[in-house]
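Input (structure):
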């Protein structure tokens, strides 16, 4: 523990030193445009598009209605101020070298008519603006929940080509690929997937997920069952993907990325208005990707097409549709089921790091089709209705999955399972009412919601016995499809239909302009239908959430505390004596307190918090096979996030998380007090980048890394993945019409493993060219 802490301090010292070096490169000899935009009723206009006409250079106004355009060459410009669905305003502005031009403008709309818009320009990586985290417009400093927002601008800078490399920009996050192909994301000692899309359920367990339609990724920390439900959230939190949406104006981006291990990747992003009055807006994102594994066998091929449309039917009604088809053909990672005594971690195994035990004709083929429809209607000046519908169809044609049992460091047994055909269909209907009102001097932001979820599916599965036992130090051949198919025994498993009906409410009460409280409550009714001879069951869960915020320095520093609840529905269990045990929902309760800071005109943002999550009614199994619901697990730790843009061109993203997640009570006394699986104690992430402003204008570079502590694979602590530190770097040249970037991943060619003990990619290089029209 002491050694780990010393390493952490060394990392933080190194990061601080690098940050200081980067600061020394900054120069500020440029013209600037700054100003303030207000609404017709005098309130600050946030989220309004500000661009220089006939160029791609732009920004949006901050929460206080202010904006800045830096690096503007001396000239006379026409500033274009636009808001979706309203008349565009233009104003001439003169910019002189090393001087600041200031404007003040009032929009012809009220604050209540001001809807969030998608920016035709770059956002700051510091922005935490979101309506999804609290299901209502709530500033970061007003929100008692901890969350991170990973903007697409940061992902472009890092040349991130998958969701996995994107989410590790959030403090404490680690990832791995399930044997089924889905992405597992772990933080605060618990695992989840990208289970929310624009706030709605988004199941990706078997079909994976693409990054090419991502506007940003939001990582909500803590049990979030109150607002999102058990099917979306884990006890650690929620990961929400916010998709790219249509906006006013025309834009086309074509991007190609090539790199190591045969990577070839082409993406296309087209945005346009379909009517002259901008009432119908359309956007299309599509991509195709092919690559090989760093192993001697393995590959990944994907195809995405994601069209979306916004129709402003009236001044009060806006309709939108977001669709996606995502097809994947790839090979799965190998999962080690057991290890002989004395094998404590992957370095004990004598297999070549780049050697595969299975051939790539044992592949997987999956597809997913998604439709999300939204109708937003302004009921009154302070009241809005949002009606949502989603349908997800996830299909597995086949999924060959690989398993090993190591009887010694040199000897391994190999077996294969074949999943598929499998189908999962999820239907969601949701209604949210948002409103603002006052009771005397006390102000309220109210959310009332109802959600209905229905799911059904089919499941086919086959498994082989042990196919062979080999010595990995001697020549061997990978297992082939023909060999596995000959030994497979195929089974069809019935799947019960499920439905969940939920009602929820949340009220943010502002007692003063600095003191507020959040009171939230959710009621879930979970029903599993009767299946053949298995009786169905009905279970109800109640989930509260409480939060308190006090802004010590108005709009700059807030202290917060929260109590949050998460839950999981559990079906009845048949006991060995023939009795039926009706299980209660498993609840996780979190207490958390911390501080949030947004200072220096929002160029500095940080969050520091301490949390304690307790699960005290987990289900355990006794040695004689009886199930008992009295297990206990406690996860506690620290979360720290620092994001800064102190000077033009310089960005810093730094995160640190400490987590102590232990099994406090279990039917197996030997594991009581042990660490939970996939729960590293210390996790560090950092990314520093600088884009030159004068002599080397538009040239930039970035450097960052990720440290992950030792992770146990099983609760008995018999096998673990060693700690590791990975460094990455980029060099880029960014022009208004094109961008060229080079990314170096795993610079030190580090051999490392995820918490499943699966080997990860060695040193590789990516080259990206993006054309903008």
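Output (sequence):
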């Amino acid at each position: 523990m002491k050694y780990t802490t010393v390493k952490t301090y060394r990392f933080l010292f190194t990061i601080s030193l690098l940050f200081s070096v980067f600061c020394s490169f900054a120069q500020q000899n440029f013209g600037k445009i700054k100003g303030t935009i207000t609404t017709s009723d005098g309130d600050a206009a946030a989220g309004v598009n500000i661009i220089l006409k006939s160029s791609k250079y732009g920004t949006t106004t901050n929460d206080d209605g202010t904006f800045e355009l830096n690096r503007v060459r001396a000239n006379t410009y026409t500033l274009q101020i636009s808001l979706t669905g309203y008349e565009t305003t233009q104003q001439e502005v003169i910019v002189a070298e090393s001087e600041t031009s200031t404007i003040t403008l009032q929009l012809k709309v009220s604050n209540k008519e001001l809807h969030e818009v998608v920016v035709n320009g770059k956002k700051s990586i510091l922005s935490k603006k979101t309506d999804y985290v609290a299901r209502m417009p709530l500033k970061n400093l007003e929100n008692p929940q901890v969350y991170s927002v990973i903007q697409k601008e940061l992902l472009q800078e890092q040349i991130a080509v998958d969701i996995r490399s994107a989410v590790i920009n959030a403090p404490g996050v680690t990832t791995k690929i399930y044997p089924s192909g889905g992405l597992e994301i772990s933080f605060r000692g618990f695992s989840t997937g990208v289970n929310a899309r624009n706030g709605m359920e988004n199941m990706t367990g078997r079909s994976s997920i693409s990054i090419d339609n991502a506007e940003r990724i939001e990582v909500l920390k803590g049990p979030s069952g109150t607002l999102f439900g058990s099917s979306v959230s884990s006890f650690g939190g929620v990961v929400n993907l916010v998709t790219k949406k249509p906006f006013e104006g025309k834009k086309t981006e074509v991007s190609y990325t090539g790199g190591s291990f045969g990577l070839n990747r082409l993406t296309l992003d087209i945005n346009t208005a379909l009517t002259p009055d901008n009432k119908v807006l359309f956007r299309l994102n599509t991509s195709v990707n092919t690559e090989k594994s760093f192993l001697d066998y393995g590959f990944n091929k994907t195809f995405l097409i994601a069209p979306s449309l916004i129709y402003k039917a009236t001044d009060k009604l806006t309709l939108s549709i977001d669709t996606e088809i995502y097809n994947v053909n790839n090979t799965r990672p190998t999962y080690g089921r057991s290890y002989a005594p004395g094998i404590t971690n992957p370095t004990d195994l004598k297999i070549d790091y780049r050697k595969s035990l299975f051939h790539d004709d044992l592949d997987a083929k999956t597809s997913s089709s998604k439709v999300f429809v939204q109708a937003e209607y302004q009921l009154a000046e302070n009241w809005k209705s949002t009606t949502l519908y989603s349908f997800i169809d996830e299909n597995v044609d086949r999924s060959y999955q690989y398993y090993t049992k190591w009887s010694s460091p040199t000897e391994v047994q190999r077996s294969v399972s074949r999943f598929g055909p499998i189908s999962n269909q999820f239907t969601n209907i949701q209604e949210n009412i948002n409103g603002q009102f006052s009771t005397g001097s006390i102000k309220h932001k109210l959310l009332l919601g109802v959600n209905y979820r229905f799911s059904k599916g089919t499941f086919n599965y086959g498994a082989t016995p042990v196919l062979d036992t080999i010595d990995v130090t001697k020549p061997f051949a990978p297992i082939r499809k023909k060999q596995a198919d000959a030994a497979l025994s195929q089974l069809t498993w019935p799947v019960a239909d499920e439905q969940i009906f939920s009602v929820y409410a949340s009220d943010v009460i502002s007692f003063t302009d600095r003191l507020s409280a959040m009171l939230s409550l959710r009621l879930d009714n979970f029903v599993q239908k009767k299946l053949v001879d298995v009786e169905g069951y009905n279970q109800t869960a109640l989930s509260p959430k409480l939060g308190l915020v006090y802004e010590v320095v108005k709009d700059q520093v807030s202290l917060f505390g929260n109590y949050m609840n998460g839950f999981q529905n559990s079906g009845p269990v048949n006991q060995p004596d023939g009795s039926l045990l009706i299980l209660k929902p498993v609840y996780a309760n979190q207490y958390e307190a911390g501080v949030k800071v947004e200072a220096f005109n929002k160029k500095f943002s940080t969050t520091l918090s301490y949390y304690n999550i307790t699960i005290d009614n987990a289900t355990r199994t006794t040695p004689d096979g009886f199930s008992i619901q009295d297990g206990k697990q406690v996860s506690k730790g620290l979360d720290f996030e620092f994001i800064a843009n102190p000077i033009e061109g310089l960005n810093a993203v730094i995160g640190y998380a400490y987590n102590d997640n232990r099994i406090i009570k279990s039917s197996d006394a030997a594991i009581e007090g042990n660490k939970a699986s996939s729960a590293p104690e210390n996790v560090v992430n950092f990314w520093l980048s600088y884009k030159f402003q004068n002599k080397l204008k538009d040239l930039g570079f970035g450097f960052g890394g990720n440290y992950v502590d030792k992770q146990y694979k099983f609760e008995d602590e018999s096998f673990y993945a060693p700690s590791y530190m990975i460094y990455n770097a980029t060099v880029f040249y960014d022009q208004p019409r094109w961008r060229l970037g080079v990314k170096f991943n795993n610079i030190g060619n580090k051999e490392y493993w995820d918490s499943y003990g699966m080997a990860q990619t060695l040193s590789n290089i990516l080259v990206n060219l993006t054309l903008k029209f």
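Notes: The CA atoms of residues 575 and 626 lie 6 Å apart. The first strand starts at residue 31 and ends at 38.
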